[in-house]
Design a protein that fits this description.
By secondary structure, this protein is α+β, with helices and mostly antiparallel strands. β7 and β8 form a beta hairpin.
Length: about 350
């Protein structure tokens, strides 16, 4: 008990340690703000009811009460998806093309969405590594806990080293306005939006269950894809964006999605499954979630449980099936930088 509790307290302390992740951070960063990783006015307010949304709740007290199963929690949109990773000046300046304008999409907008996804993950991962380092000197550790910490430290440090490499690539794109270094695919919908999200993934298996890269190997060469929801002039988009240095993994990943859709699987189901499986940074419309059948809700919560639990082995076919029939929206158009096959 003291160990788990102290671990959580230490992590919360780290999450309160604000710093600006802009490439030119320094003297001009006068005021660290609660930056939204998902826009408040353009995105969260679209799905909010009485100013609130649902978010994943895997806090220790909830996991204890529910036998390790996470839950959803109502949260005000001022608090939802925030992190202390930018100063006011840089947040306003840098993200103006996406915070003030709907997604067209331009490559600059894709790069900025991708950068914001990356920075939020970087902030959380850096906090995790610092937390683990600080906890190894905890006085109450038994042998198993120490071994868990050492193991976690290796994995998280490797993930952070990869994020550092990707962040320096992204920083350079932004510094030089070299937005051609980004590739993207966006699926657009005019249906009502029910959830908003932003995240990053080192793709391990594709939508057909084929391995793309081995995350078990400690290496700084893992390819990365970012994904996000975004408001458009007449609806919203589900976007994937990545730096060209990750083409080797991201091309076949997107191709596998095209393959399963060509074979009759629903795109909407596949993308919802992806978000639920690969992202813990999302917000849902309350009445949408409350209106889902109990067995669909149970399927989604179970999926979140598997994906967030440190000791459950994620099945290799996790993107191939599951969570069908939950998405009640349609994607109508595709915008992409990828060459057409026609
Ligand atoms: Zn700053």
């Amino acid at each position: 008990m003291p160990f788990a509790y102290d671990y959580l307290l230490e992590f919360q302390k780290q999450m309160q340690r604000g710093r600006c992740l802009h490439h030119s951070h320094g003297e001009r960063c006068d005021k660290i703000i609660k930056a939204h990783s998902i826009q408040k006015s353009g995105q969260l307010s679209l799905i909010a009811e009485n100013g609130h949304v649902y978010r994943l709740n895997n806090e220790l007290a909830v996991l204890r009460k529910n036998n390790g199963i996470p839950d959803l929690k109502k949260i005000g949109i001022k608090q939802a998806s925030t992190f202390l990773g930018f100063c006011k000046l840089h947040d306003n300046q840098l993200f103006e093309p996406i915070d003030k304008y709907p997604l067209e999409p331009t490559k600059e907008q894709i790069a900025l969405y991708a950068f914001r996804c990356l920075c939020r993950e970087y902030f959380v991962k850096e906090n995790a590594v610092t937390t683990i380092s600080n906890m190894t000197s905890h006085t109450d550790l038994n042998r198993h806990q120490l071994s868990f910490l050492k193991h976690s430290h290796l994995g998280h440090s490797n993930a952070l080293a990869n994020l550092q490499r990707h962040k320096s690539l992204f920083d350079s794109v932004i510094l030089n306005s070299d937005f051609e270094q980004f590739e993207f695919i966006c699926f657009t919908s005019s249906s009502p939006c029910q959830l908003q999200f932003s995240g990053v993934l080192y793709p391990d298996y594709d939508f057909e269950g084929k391995i793309l890269q081995d995350l078990g190997v400690l290496t700084e060469r893992l390819d990365l894809i970012t994904f996000f929801s975004a408001p458009m002039e007449n609806g919203w988009a589900f976007g994937f964006g990545w730096h060209v240095s990750s083409n080797k993994t991201c091309f076949p990943f997107i191709q596998s999605l095209a393959n399963i859709v060509a074979n009759g699987k629903k795109l909407e189901d596949a993308l919802l499954r992806f978000v639920i499986s690969c992202c813990e940074n999302h917000a849902m419309r309350i009445s949408w979630w409350d209106g889902l059948d109990a067995d669909l809700k149970a399927q989604i919560i179970e999926r979140m449980h598997i994906m967030t639990h440190p000791h459950i082995q994620v099945p290799v076919n996790y993107l191939m099936a599951g969570c069908e029939g939950v998405a009640n929206w349609n994607f109508e158009y595709i915008h992409t930088s990828l060459p057409s096959k026609n």
